């Protein structure tokens, strides 16, 4: 029988082909690959199920059409057309506005404050399709809108985008935004990114601006940084 030079242990079931240690190593790698694949498939299924659930919620039939306007279009407002049934079905807040005798319901017009036209259009499109093409700015705007109008599926989508796209260049601005609106998952992820790169961030203009604009927020960052350093020292 041949023996494996690396460990000299024959695995009887695979006599003449591999040793036990080599077999166990290969088996472990295959099992890990299967676990990783299953995790990705499971996450994909969860995302698809969430999207399906969002789009297939029962729609009330008692609503008619509505026109929305963004807050930044005061001079030349551009309407975003929608159906009350869809808005009411996707957002509890919009449903309350449309289901009662509020001015929005009576006039068929809703003025959305503190939002750009592009964000409003993307928001309404998401209510219909559960899809949106995000960038950093749009994700922040839609996250605030989803929180205000209680569209949880959109909120989760935007938070995942901002966390997965954190980097050295946007970590401070993202942390400041998340702290302002109390989005804790983003706060924690941004802090991790910031505290891992304090020496590089300290030389950026944004760091200097934050230091002048909100020293209290910078103090919280340093508290997290020194706490992390202390925890690291304990295990050295």
Layout of SSEs?
Elements: H1 20-55, E1 65-70, E2 80-83, H2 84-90, H3 92-99, H4 103-107, E3 109-112, H5 117-129, H6 136-148, H7 152-164, H8 171-181, H9 184-195, H10 198-201, H11 205-213, H12 215-234
Parallel strand pairs: 1-3
Antiparallel strand pairs: 1-2
Helix pairs in contact: 2-3, 5-6, 6-7, 8-9, 11-12
3D architecture notes:
The chain has 236 residues and is mainly α. Among the domains are: 57-150, Potassium Channel Kv1.1, Chain A (2-Layer Sandwich), CATH 3.30.710.10; 166-236, Serine Threonine Protein Phosphatase 5, Tetratricopeptide repeat (Alpha Horseshoe). The protein is 64% helix and 6% strand. The protein contains 12 helices and 3 strands, in the order αββαααβαααααααα. A 3-stranded mixed β-sheet has the order 2-1-3.
Radius of gyration: 26 Å
| Helix run count | 12
Q: Which structural class matches the secondary elements?
A: mainly alpha
* Main sheet summary: 3 strands, mixed
Secondary-structure element string: HEEHHHEHHHHHHHH
Tell me the CATH topology of the domain at 57-150. Answer: Potassium Channel Kv1.1, Chain A
Q: Write down the overall geometry.
A: flat
InterPro entries: BTB/POZ_dom, SKP1/BTB/POZ_sf
GO molecular function, one term: ubiquitin protein ligase binding
Domain BTB: 64-136
Protein name: BTB domain-containing protein
């Amino acid at each position: 029988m041949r023996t494996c030079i690396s460990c000299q242990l024959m695995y009887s079931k695979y006599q003449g082909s591999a040793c036990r240690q080599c077999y166990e190593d290969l088996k472990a790698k295959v099992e890990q690959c299967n676990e990783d694949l299953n995790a990705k498939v499971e996450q994909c299924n969860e995302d698809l199920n969430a999207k399906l659930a969002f789009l297939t919620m029962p729609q009330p039939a008692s609503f008619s059409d509505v026109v929305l306007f963004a807050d930044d279009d005061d001079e030349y407002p551009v309407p975003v057309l929608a159906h009350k049934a869809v808005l009411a079905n996707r957002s509890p807040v919009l449903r309350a506005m449309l289901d009662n005798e509020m001015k929005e319901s009576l006039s068929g017009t809703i003025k959305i404050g503190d939002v750009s036209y592009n964000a409003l259009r993307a928001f309404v499109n998401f209510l219909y399709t559960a899809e949106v093409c995000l960038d950093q700015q749009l994700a922040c705007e839609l996250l605030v809108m989803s929180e205000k109008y209680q569209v949880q599926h959109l909120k989760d989508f935007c938070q995942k985008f901002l966390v997965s796209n954190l980097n050295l260049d946007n970590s401070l601005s993202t942390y400041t935004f998340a702290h302002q609106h109390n989005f804790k998952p983003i706060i924690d992820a941004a802090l991790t990114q910031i505290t891992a790169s304090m020496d590089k961030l300290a030389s950026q203009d944004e760091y200097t601006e934050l230091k002048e604009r909100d020293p209290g927020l910078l103090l919280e960052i340093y508290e997290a940084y020194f706490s992390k350093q202390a925890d690291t020292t304990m295990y050295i």
